[in-house]
Amino acid sequence: MRKILVITAMLFAALQTAQAGKKIVVDLSEQEAYAYEDGRLLFHGWISTGKPGRRTPTGRFRVLEKELRHVSSKYPEPHGGARMDYMLRLTDYGVAMHLGYVPNYPASHGCIRMENGFAQKMYNWASVGTPVIIRGYPPRHVDRPISRNAPRVARRSSSSHGGFVGNDPLRLLSSVPGKSASVKKPAKKSLTRKKRKRYPAQKMTENEKPVTPLGMLKG
Questions:
Q1: Which residues, including other chains, have CB under 8 Å from residue 121's CB and lie 6 or more apart?
Q2: How many CA atoms lie within 13 A of 101 on its CB side?
Q3: φ, ψ for residue 189 (rounded to 5)?
Q4: Which of 61, 26, 50 is nearest to 136 (CA)?
Q5: Residue bearing the bigger pLDDT, 99 or 9
């Protein structure tokens, strides 16, 4: 009996240790990521992971590096240059969590794109060394309403993936400190009506009045 109590206490202590501290769980099936601290869910947000042929790897990782303003040296291929702000690097071969366009289907080259608002929160909360668990299998698309945190969203329909919604790409750059999106506002149409010119009524003399057929008979 005593051995059973000791083993139970050891298992409980191991469980408490495993739940202590920060942890990120990435669910590929739901296309959503969760932030836990001391075993308690703090916040979560929508993501878009690797598309077919570029799937996001599953397994256990750690945040290796944080970078507020990151530019990819790989994508777009072959010379890179893509913005990946609020970057949390997970591997040495290019997989990271970062701010990006989040439709309702897997669309990245292997990275974990986070929606606007959620990316900033995750970047500020996570630290180097935070464990990251990636699990599940990505679906073709997920059913979810318009983004909850993004100030604006882009909508379009696609015959291959169905309709999707996500963060407006023009708004993503404006969320990075020191950056602003250059979007021209359409000119407003004037609602004022043009005033018509009014001419004074002219009086006609007796000789200028039109002659009716009856008047012609009487004349």
A1: 35, 43, 45
A2: 16
A3: -80, 140
A4: 26
A5: 99
Task: Output the pTM of the full model.
Answer: 0.61
Q: What is the pLDDT of residues 106-121, one digit of tens each?
A: 999 999 999 999 999 9
Query: How many structural domains compose the chain?
Result: 1
User: What are the angstrom distances between the C-alpha of 53 and each of 77, 95, 107?
Assistant: 15, 14, 11
Tens-place pLDDT, residues 10-52? 655 554 444 479 999 999 999 999 999 999 999 999 999 999 9
Residues in the chain: 219
Q: Which structure tokens are listed for 1?
A: 């009996």
Question: By residue range, what is the domain housing residue 45?
Answer: 18-175
Could you give the C-alpha distances from 171 to 39, 100, 168, 183, 192, in angstroms and in order?
34, 10, 5, 9, 33
Cβ atoms within 10 A of the Cβ of 103, count? 23
Measured at the alpha carbon of residue 77, what is the angle toward residues 73 and 81, in degrees to the nearest 5? 40
**Left, alpha or beta for 77 (phi > 0: left; psi -120 to 50: alpha)?**
beta
Q: Are 138 and 56 in contact (CB under 8 A)?
A: yes
What's the CATH number where 46 sits?
2.40.440.10
- Is residue 168 assigned to a domain? yes
Report which residue type is found at 187: A
The verdict on residue 101 lying in a domain is: yes
